[in-house]
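Hey, can you fold this one?
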Amino acid sequence: MALNIIGLSGSACRPSLATSLIRQIMGGIETAIDCSARLIELADEAPQMLSASTPGRRLDPSAQLIRAAEEADLLIVAAPVDRGSLNGSTKYLLNLVDRRAFAGKPVILVAIGSTPLHRLVNEQQFLPLFRFLNAPSLPTAIYATEQDFIEGCLVNAQICAQVDHAVSEAAAHLRIRGNGNAGTYVPARAAANKLG
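Sure. Predicted structure:
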């Protein structure tokens, strides 16, 4: 049975750089290992999700969204940074999950900001949140700004290298869990060079 990867995009708008980056990471992992990947965009799910006030009173379809996150073998969570903080829909979703279901679940952290000044948001906000949930973040967290993209495509070589590291770490972690067949991953750096 294929491993299950869930990408959670906390962006409330489209087109979304957070969603674009999640798609790139998920595509790399799918190429590197046998898995099933699903993207959940909170822009679509927020109205239903906001109707669930506590984990004990979850209503469909928000219950399905929360269950998908809880049952994933790996999470990729990307959130825009608003005024130096993670946006509300991402934090709200994580308030609803069952902490026990997240214990030991690996997470790739991705934050998108408008300025490099918020670069520490992963360490200062994302990491403590997932530590509380007992979900270990993989070593490479990604922070990108709007200037790192051209027409929605990541072009910054340094961020592309971080994406490659995150994909390699995720594939290695999932292979340890078993069920993963290796594939051929085309690094993000190579893809970015083709655009240049």
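Residues 179-196 have pLDDT under 50 and may be disordered. Let me know if you want another pass with a different chain boundary.
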